[in-house]
Write a structure and sequence with these properties.
- The complex is a heterodimer of chains A (481) and B (100).
- Chain A is α/β, with parallel strands linked by helices and 481 residues long.
- Helices cover 40% and strands 12% of the residues of chain A.
- In chain A, strand 2, helix 4 and strand 3 form a beta-alpha-beta unit.
- The longest helix of chain A is centred in the last third of the chain and has 25 residues.
- Helices cover 33% and strands 4% of the residues of chain B.
- Chain B has three helices and two strands.
- A two-stranded antiparallel sheet of chain B has the order 1-2.
- The radius of gyration of chain B is 23 Å and the shape is flat.
- Chain B starts with a helix and ends in a 9-residue tail after the last strand.
- Classes of the chains: A alpha/beta (481), B mainly alpha (100).
- At the A-B interface, helix 10, helix 11, helix 12, helix 13 and helix 14 of A face helix 1 and helix 2 of B.
Chain lengths: 481, 100
């Protein structure tokens, strides 16, 4: 039996019944990484002994007859902007190449308590800024379905690790689509929860009003199981909310007949490529066959979403990245011996081109004389976009769209034109601006064999509705319609 | 054109970034093209629309409160562990105050 093709539930069951040990499973994935990752390049670094020691702990629990935790033995990849104590956390940046995390992110503590095994740290666009993982300072990750194509980004390493069966599941982070778009490109399931659902303590900040951590896996039930473990109030993150965490996986399997799913007129109009449109139309038909009602809704300010998003995200990034000054951690270049040149030389050497560009633009839109015209204006338009969604959710339970307007693009195709890269985020960024949950599901392949993803968005804290509809779609064969 | 060479220098100074002449030329083009795209926001009349800074913490019930008590933090060793230059329990930096 190929242990690398199992779900989280099967792995736990096998360990529980004594059919495989957590160590055997961990080793199977380490072998798989050794074999696949030289080409895919999903991992930035891994510590095999560290992973094995976690697996041994599970096997000792089993031998002692203790009840196994819910994610026992689950081999996971963790995006390298999340801290695991004692391991490096590079954020895909030269700046943090040698930074060793002094503490665990809350999501890591929670997953460790639930029995997960951390195989290694997954590649990302530098500081999670990008849509292709080509902005990593260390290596581009390749799409597991085609080595010439990008895996998406910024959680491209996480999605590729799952897609290539080098991990059963992964954590990513999503500021403008960075979980959902790579999930779509790599043919896996990825979910961005409601803003404030998951603690961000120990996540290296990018856009603080937008960032959320979420799971990627091969099926909806695994995503639901992981989401339950990482969700909930954390005293260490004041933005996390004390909203009850339902048993997401236990709530799956409800009929979705009568569910009202909104399709935006904007989807009909915007430049969705033909192979994607064909798959999405098949997906829409399947939801109809399952008894859902498709309803056209208007989100009139969608055209302004990308401009709004980039002003806000860059402003927040420029402010968050001010901390990399070469004093307390990270790279330091001494410069000419004075403080100012040390700052400048350090930041110049530590940051890549995209990060610098965003810091420059973010600093500009926050600067005196331009703040009202750009930053305040974008925050006001954010209000209008939020109202659009509130109005739409008066009429429908979920919104549906492609995750990305195109299938995976080729490495190098968009690197010279940052704006064209930004425009590919059109369907994902609104969920971050509005703070709602979203999921990307596999929805068949293009004639060239590249995965296509379909996206469902729900109301704040309506993860159960989103997951249940996604699960029904998956169970009805929607992953390959 | 909103961004010229002088503006790039000014912003780089605010952001504490060193920018080479080559980077400057590239940034002028890219920043202008992105800002031209952003310009479309001005088509919208937003008079009287309140800005949204964040989306979920909209009422006092959602605020996070905790008692203002001391709690365990990092040891000095942990805090200094990633410091690029440390000594005598401190981060070392170049001299800040000039002699002039």
């Amino acid at each position: 039996m190929d242990l690398t093709k199992l779900t989280a539930r099967k792995i736990r069951g096998m360990i529980e019944r004594g059919e495989a040990s957590a160590v055997e499973i961990c080793r199977a994935f380490q072998d798989r990484i050794r074999e696949q990752d030289p080409e895919v390049q999903a991992f930035l670094h891994h510590d095999n002994d560290f992973a094995l020691s976690q697996a041994e702990r599970i096997d000792r629990m089993k031998q002692a007859g203790e009840p196994l935790p819910e994610l026992a033995g689950l081999p996971m990849a963790i995006k390298d902007n999340l801290l695991i104590r004692g391991l490096r956390c590079t954020c895909g940046s030269r700046n943090l190449e040698n930074f060793v995390a002094p503490y665990n992110a809350t999501v890591i503590d929670r997953l460790a308590s639930a029995g997960a095994v951390f195989l290694g740290k997954a590649n990302l666009d530098e500081y999670a800024m990008g849509s292709s993982t080509e902005n990593s300072a260390f290596q581009p990750t390749r799409n597991p379905h085609s080595r010439n194509h990008v895996p998406g980004g910024s959680s491209g390493g996480s999605a590729a690790a799952v897609g290539a069966h080098m991990a059963v599941a992964a954590l990513g982070t999503d500021t403008g689509g960075s979980i959902r778009q790579p999930a779509s490109f790599c043919g896996v399931v990825g979910m961005k929860p409601t803003y404030s659902r998951v603690s961000r303590y120990g996540l290296v900040a990018f856009g603080s009003s937008l960032d959320q951590i979420g799971p990627l896996a091969h099926d909806v039930e695994d995503v639901a199981g992981i989401l339950k473990v990482i969700s909930g109030k954390d005293p260490l993150d004041a933005t996390s909310l004390a909203v009850d965490v339902p048993d997401y996986a236990g709530g799956l399997g409800q009929p979705i007949e009568g569910l009202k799913i909104g399709i935006t007129r904007e989807y009909r109009q915007s430049g969705v490529s033909e192979p994607v449109r064909t798959r999405i139309e098949a997906g829409l038909k399947l939801f109809q066959d399952l008894g859902c009602r498709l309803i056209e809704v208007d989100l009139p300010h969608t055209d302004y979403a990308i401009a709004t998003y980039y002003v806000i995200a860059m402003a927040e990034a420029s402010s968050n990245l001010a901390r990399y000054d070469g004093v307390r951690y990270g790279l330091r270049i001494p410069g000419q011996g004075d403080l100012s040149s040390m700052y400048r030389e350090t930041r110049d050497a530590g940051f890549g081109a995209e990060v610098k560009r965003r810091i420059m633009l973010g600093t500009f839109v926050l600067s005196s004389g331009y703040y009202d015209a750009y930053y305040l204006k974008a925050q006001q338009v954010r209000t209008l976009i939020k109202r659009d969604f509130e109005a739409a959710f008066q009429r429908v339970d979920l919104l549906i769209s492609p995750t990305s307007p195109t299938p995976p693009f080729r490495l190098g195709e968009k690197t010279s034109d940052p704006l064209s890269m930004y425009l590919s985020d059109i369907f994902t960024i609104t969920a971050n601006l509005v703070g709602i949950p979203g999921i990307s599901l596999p929805c068949g392949r293009t004639p060239d064999g590249m995965p296509v993803g379909i996206q469902l968005l729900g109301k704040h804290f309506d993860e159960p509705v989103v997951l249940n509809a996604a699960h029904a779609f998956e169970q009805a064969g929607g992953f390959d319609p | 054109m909103k961004i010229d060479g002088a503006r790039v220098d000014y912003i780089a100074n605010l952001a504490q970034l060193a920018v080479t002449e080559e980077e400057k030329q590239e940034l002028i083009g890219q920043m202008n093209s992105i800002l031209d795209y952003v310009e479309q926001l001005n088509r919208l009349d937003t008079r009287g629309i309140e800005p949204t800074a964040q989306v979920v913490h909209t009422s006092e019930q959602n605020y996070s409160w905790r008692a203002d008590r001391s709690r365990p933090g990092f040891s000095q060793e942990q805090s200094l562990g990633n410091g690029p230059a440390t000594g005598s329990g401190h981060f070392k930096v170049p001299k800040v105050i000039s002699e002039k």
